Amino acid sequence: MSKSTINTHEPLLEVKNLVQQFPLNKGFLRTLHFRNGRLVHERKFVHAVNGVTFEIMKGEVFSIVGESGCGKSTTARTIIRLLKPTSGEVHFDGTDISKLNAVQLRPFRRRMQMVFQNPYASLNPRHTIKTILTEPMLFHGVAKNKKEAEEQALALMEKVGLRKEQIERFPHQFSGGQRQRISIARTLAVNPEFIIADEPVSALDVSIQAQILNLMMDLREELNLSYLFIAHDLAVVKHISDRVGVMYLGRIVEVGSKKDVFENPLHPYTFALLASVPVLGGRNLKSSELAGDVPTTPTELPKGCLFAARCPKAQAICQNIIPEFKKYATGHYCACHLIS
Ligand code: SF4
Hints:
Blueprint: E1 11-23, E2 32-35, E3 38-41, E4 45-57, E5 61-65, H1 72-79, E6 87-92, E7 95-96, H2 102-111, E8 112-115, H3 129-139, H4 146-159, H5 176-188, E9 194-198, H6 206-223, E10 226-231, H7 234-240, E11 243-248, E12 251-257, H8 258-263, H9 268-275, H10 316-320, E13 326-329, E14 332-334
Parallel strand pairs: 5-10, 5-11, 8-9, 9-10
Antiparallel strand pairs: 1-4, 1-6, 2-3, 6-7, 11-12, 12-14, 13-14
Helix pairs in contact: 3-4, 5-6
Iron/sulfur cluster binds at residues 267-268, 305, 307-308, 311, 313-315, 318, 323, 336-338.
């Protein structure tokens, strides 16, 4: 059996009703307003993540897909605790890490790593690749001493397809694709089990994208990694995912296997996303069926379905009642009043 199919039914990550809000008007004076002749204290929030629930099995690649501004990256940063959640829970291998302090989080920081979109911005330009790779090993105690860390760093260079002698160079001496290989090597330096990849190939040339994706998938097989993949490119998501979650305005509206979501989508938003993908082979490119954009600063959430303002199938009920996230077939979930 290919190791790419070794995902188990044991959850590694369970995200439960995760909420992330950012205060819009900071400072006490800015929160004071006159209403009907009275001074009232009112804080406004950007509702970036609005009750996200999903799980990722050991060895699985789960992707979250959606338009820019839908809350995918904020969800990823909240899960890995670069941001503290407003509410909700994030269980990693059975432990709720959402409320842990910095010291309690340290072992989990080693086990959960993140690859960012821009490999140049995420690598310290003043450090050689050797320092970039060995520092986290020494910090997390993965290597006993400098010599052992350097040996492991050289092995990592080879593992991600770079030459050992390049280890003394600085990030600016590498191409974009090579820098992303260095970022991947840095995440692997601490022997993680779970990697969040936030648009890891969207800043790269198309010709390089496949190489990096293939590298990530090879590493998954070799090291039995689990991935949360954040992407807006459906072709990338289709290529690498076991299961897919479709996100709109900070909420997951559909979850299913790659086959379910791409071949038997249920939610009108998923339909619209798939329809917006260019189709080759003699047919004209389809334009997006979506009218308007995702609100960039959603301070007031609609009362009912979050997609109602753009949904071509919206009914009266959609304006007032939030659709339940229901199971329709094994592992296929959707939140829409029209699906029965
Ligand atoms: Fe569209 Fe209504 Fe379904 Fe929301 S609940 S996706 S508005 S049909």
